[in-house]
Amino acid sequence: MDAAQEAQKREAFRQAVVNTLERRLFYIPSFKIYRGVAGLYDYGPPGCAVKANVLAFWRQHFVREESMLEIDCPCVTPEIVLKASGHVEKFTDLMVKDEKTGTCYRADHLLKDYCKDKLEKDPNLSAEKAAELKHVLAMLDDFSPEELGAKIKGYGITAPDTKNTLSDPYPFNLMFQTSIGPSGLSSGYMRPETAQGIFVNFKDLYYFNGNKLPFAAAQIGQAFRNEISPRQGLLRVREFTLAEIEHFVDPEDKSHPKFSEVSKLEFLMFPREDQVSGQQARKIQIGEAVSQGIVNNETLGYFIGRVYLFLTQLGIDKDRLRFRQHLANEMAHYAADCWDAEIECSYGWIECVGIADRSAYDLRAHTDKSGVPLVAHEKFSEPIEVEKLVITPVKKELGLAFKGNQKKVVEALEAMGEKEAMELKATLEAEGEAKFRICTLDKEVIIKKDMLSISKRKKKEHQRLFTPSVIEPSFGIGRIIYCLYEHLFYTRASKDGDEQLNVFRFPPLVAPIKCTVFPLVQNQQYEEVAKRIAKSLTTVGISHKIDITGTSIGKRYARTDELGVPFAITVDSAPSVTLRERDSRQQVRVNVDEVASVVKELTDGVSKWPDILLRYPTHSSRPALLGFLVEYSTSLVAIPQNDLITPPLR
């Protein structure tokens, strides 16, 4: 199969999945009756249930397992917070406009699509040209606006919808801006991530944790990004759910006490060196990756292992999951190491989880901007003698020079690191004055030699103050869920082979409904039994649905298979019922009073379906049908002919 045929096959599969998802109301475009808004989606009842189940498992797997501190912060964030984090200045994508219609496009996406399209569909592409296009794809994140514009013009790329010429690329900030309060004087933004709420609360969280490191804080919430040209359904949207963890650790000790629990896990990893040399992802034990220095430290490696377990237990195919290390041109200057959990779907490899060692950048940035020290301390068993930087502002001189701003200048001077302070001292001694930036005033001031003294003195210390490093796993929940839909979707022939039926093979952990209850036919006695079973399921906390329509049992099975319901109870007699497993379509016979507890065992993972097959008699459709005929021969209930010839096993 050539590249073009493969692309067509992927497109057909994706369309089948999306059509099923929208028809069964897993998700639909928002504001549909008003023609919708690109990049905004509503989750319907089954979609809400899947999302709730994924988040519940995330809390169990991470928050409870690691004793994390969960918080919930506002979506509206003051501008000063996002200035400190760098989002106001740097949270941008390069945009181009259709010069006639004004329609906006993300510049790198147009170039990326052009290169991929040529590589996949142009049979006459020379090896030299293919190598050039692959190099362009590898360097996308490195291009300046001018370089990106030159590539777009050089390849003759035009507006996709109109073929009109495009403007030069220019930066567009992706945050939604707003004002806080009626005066409009306090600017804010809808948060582009949940992490900043954790960073600004570090001081209180550290105190809550008994002033001890390491510890982790977690937050689940909505984030907002004003995407230039949203596409790919749930994969690139303007409002989405993030689940983020900030694990605070001593930068001098990034070991993890539970690393041995994941060290033997082996999965696909794509180290930086393999990407640069043109190799493929390969299976590596995470313990070996850490010991060989491929992964920077144990804590980062531990979370990579835990993310692997989380995704595969949800139902992600382990052979279509890889952990890709960021290339040098993707890494933030302050980051120690970054990996993305990428899941393969019909759109290619999609980044769904980022796991980064962000060093101490975030806490230092907020310390500098707020003037509040976001630090931890380590108490020594005995005092130690250290050479200490001593910065002594001369407040009288600073007061005369800066008046009401004296306090902010003093705080900024006292917050200097050793390197910055010694450089300032050298400049003052050489020139008598120096420029010094005050972040809280957002301007540079002139500091004179008589305004402070900077020296190093030996002194005894009882504790060490330091800014913790942060290991951050960040989960795009919508992306994970969409990839899950694709990985768990398949079709199979109906019983008589005349049509293909859609099935979502959700594990019970994720399934929107765990069990359905079907009276075989519309009959008061069977319906009463079904209601009694439903009440028992409710009591043990199992989500379920009763279907008492007169539709054939086969069609009812098909409807719930399409929703991914793993188990179905069919009431075909009063003392016992059949329990069906979705994917094998096998059935066992279980007593009415026992069936709810059996379903509970299965959905909680206490028992697997093969265990149930060993404990209970396998159901055969012929004896059940004979029993059904005998029971109803004594009643005056009319049995539709199609029910008689359709056994209750599809």
TrEMBL record:
It is found in: Cytoplasm. InterPro entries: aa-tRNA-synt_IIb (IPR002314), aa-tRNA-synth_II (IPR006195), aa-tRNA-synth_II/BPL/LPL (IPR045864), Anticodon-bd (IPR004154), Anticodon-bd_dom_sf (IPR036621), Gly-tRNA_synthase/POLG2 (IPR027031), GlyRS-like_core (IPR033731), tRNA-synt_gly (IPR002315). Residues 15-508 form the Aminoacyl-transfer RNA synthetases class-II family profile domain. One of its GO terms (biological process) is mitochondrial glycyl-tRNA aminoacylation. It comes from the Eukaryota. Pfam families: HGTP_anticodon (PF03129), tRNA-synt_2b (PF00587). The keyword Cytoplasm applies. Keywords: Aminoacyl-tRNA synthetase, ATP-binding, Cytoplasm, Ligase, Nucleotide-binding, Protein biosynthesis, Transferase. It catalyses: tRNA(Gly) + glycine + ATP = glycyl-tRNA(Gly) + AMP + diphosphate. One of its GO terms (molecular function) is ATP binding. Coiled coil: none annotated. GO terms for cellular component: mitochondrion. Its EC number is 6.1.1.14. Its main location: cytoplasm. Belongs to the class-II aminoacyl-tRNA synthetase family. Homodimer. This is glycine--tRNA ligase. It comes from Sesamum radiatum.
